[in-house]
């Protein structure tokens, strides 16, 4: 058989298999509600009266005080108590994109989704309040990671790290500008004054990011590496920020910036990566919408790359940068916390399928199976269904969803007794016995999606296996959009 035909058949079989196992349909609306609720468990700062995750209390109320600034609020990124600005900004950008594209599918959950964005952007406004300085992190990671402590008890070093003209960080500043710009679209009609504040700040932050170019890990490697080091370079964040500012402001200058800087800033473009470090696939998909609508011929090269990206996701395709799948059908990339790739790449598939639909377009994929909007939706839904329980372990990777889900997630607040249950302080090393315990976590962090199974679909459900058992905000942010869509179309 000709290899092309063989590949076509394998893709067709995979697509049929994926379409056929939708028999036990999931409660996407329940999962959507939970995926948003999770963000309340990650809140830092003073909690509001309508806080729904009640086992959490106020924490880190002096963040920034030693430097004379207010840096309270924001999100803990994962199972520790550090506020890492780079992934937090990416989380806010993706939550905003979820609402921009799928907010109309959220029903009664829209208000909670808006509050989840605002919790991040209120904080990002504080970190960018002073000209020429951006606070990019609060909390010394080595101090934090050497303790197993509740955020409410924290006595670790809450150092505030910043960038400025002499110590630039176009990566974190660019992502912050992208987040503020994306959120300004979310709030444009819902809260015009807040939206204008976000957009004006985004413009200033982008100017700063572009004028003072460099990677924040050059000056802050001791604090941000190896956790959220900028491995991939800052160039993609400059393009990404410009793309969001173009969408948010509709000013010509951002489109011109993209066209003029395209060649330099796309150096090292890896078409099928998308996450807190690498924005390339996201840039390509975001800008393609306008190309597909016939409004931006000068951005055509981004659509060509987006098409290549989409083809690389099709199972059984022979693209040189083909994304791998586990035997059970989960997208898999090496490096830990795999589920971040699953949700972000699936989000792009779904977003692109909508852009293709509106333009009545499909991606030919070099004569192999064409990527039609409906195939892309089927594949994205298959990834979501895997997360929710259609997998070889027969378990949901979302805490609190379904009958079987991870019980021992790598998360300090969830695994230690709550302040209500145990009002006395639990010191740095006193938490170790809870970390090592075989007991399930006492506080169920509803909606948290963990790093997920390894490449053979196995999952240990054990706190020390953090790559598998730790949730992060940037796993959930794109999932919110996916669940919104499938809750309205299933
Ligand atoms: C995946 O995890 C299972 C169970 O923990 C283990 O037996 C297996 O060796 C792991 N596979 C790989 C490739 O690491």
Helix-and-strand structural type: mainly alpha
Residue-averaged pLDDT:
93
The total tally of domains equals 1
Strand order of the largest sheet: 1-2-3
Provide the CATH architecture.
Alpha/alpha barrel
Question: Strand portion, in percent?
Answer: under 5%
CATH class: Mainly Alpha
Cα-atom Rg, whole angstroms? 22 Å
Bound heterogens, unique: 2-acetamido-2-deoxy-beta-D-glucopyranose
Question: How many strand segments?
Answer: 5
> CA-to-CA gap between the ends?
37 Å
Principal-axis shape:
globular
Number of helices: 18
CATH fold label: Glycosyltransferase
Task: Note the main sheet.
Answer: 3 strands, antiparallel
Concise summary:
By secondary structure, this protein is mainly alpha-helical. It has helices at residues 3-20, 28-41, 85-102, 110-127, 141-145, 170-186, 192-211, 216-224, 235-249, 252-265, 280-292, 300-313, 339-359, 373-388, 412-415, 432-436, 466-469, 473-488, and strands at 83-84, 133-138, 160-164, 324-325, 331-332.
